[in-house]
Design a protein that fits this description.
Length: 265
């Protein structure tokens, strides 16, 4: 019944930055007790636009930092994996394993993640119709793992742009999975900044409101202490202050939508 917020920086830039961000997010979320927080951060951004872009500290150092955050702050953590061999190590620390959008059809990767019995959060590829995601879910279920989240993050629309088709939420909610909306990557402008992606942050509020109103119970947002100086996704990450401003809106809207749903049953 609670709204779950998966939030944190795009990539682990340092242990101090990741820990401070997690701590601040935890403090902010205490303002909304009807919200659950999962901290997210990547140890490796393997799908960067440019070969020279910052990727992160790597799996060993990254998981050590996430484990420290999980144990010291007592909050669940999640990260994304790119190779089947990373699944078990990630699951030893993370409650949720994330499959990146561009890898959502990589069968070996998905099956290894499913075998860990962790919750598997698959980002729906920008190239994939929502009806096709049922076959991804079937792959996970085939390993006896029913813990599946599917994340909508927009669909490729021409060059350097994404669009969110809200019919997708009805389709995804008819499938045997939980549904999440990635409010920050949905406003990404892929490759628009000559070697890096841009973004249209002004639409995060509108799109997140629409997603929650459609019945989505999980919201994914990337949050950074200083987005303009972030080492990745400067154009889409929310600042901690922006996250704090949006939290009461998300929480109240989710409560209202839930009550409206109960009343109509």
């Amino acid at each position: 019944d609670k709204l779950t917020l998966i939030a944190g920086p795009c990539v682990i830039e340092s242990e101090a930055m990741a820990f401070e961000t997690a701590q601040r997010l935890q403090e902010i979320c205490k303002m909304a007790p009807e919200v659950d927080l999962v901290f997210k951060a990547s140890f490796d951004k393997a799908n960067r636009t440019s070969a020279g872009a910052f990727r992160g500290p790597g799996i060993d150092a990254g998981l050590k930092i996430l484990e420290s955050i999980r144990s010291k702050l007592n909050i669940p953590v999640t990260t994304d994996i790119h190779h089947p061999g990373e699944a078990r190590d990630a699951a030893s620390v993370c409650s949720i394993i994330q499959i990146p959008a561009f890898l959502c059809r990589q069968t070996d990767l998905i099956l290894e993640a499913a075998d860990t019995k962790a919750i598997v959060n698959v980002k729906k590829g920008q190239f994939l119709a929502p009806t096709d995601i049922e076959y991804v879910i079937e792959k996970i279920h085939s390993r006896g793992n029913k813990n599946v989240i599917i994340t909508e993050r927009g669909t490729t629309f021409g060059y350097n742009n994404l669009v969110v088709d809200f019919r997708s939420f009805d389709i995804l909610q008819s499938l045997p999975c939980l549904v999440c909306f990635d409010a920050t990557h949905a406003v990404q402008l892929p490759g628009a900044n000559k070697g890096s992606s841009g973004g249209a942050k002004q639409f995060i509020k509108t799109l997140s409101k629409a997603a929650i109103s459609s019945g989505v119970n999980i919201l994914f947002t990337e949050v950074h202490p200083n987005p303009l100086n972030a080492l990745s996704d400067q154009g889409t990450q929310l600042s901690l202050e922006e996250f704090a401003q949006l939290l009461p809106l998300w929480s109240k809207l989710h409560q209202f939508t839930k009550e409206l749903s109960y009343a109509s049953q």
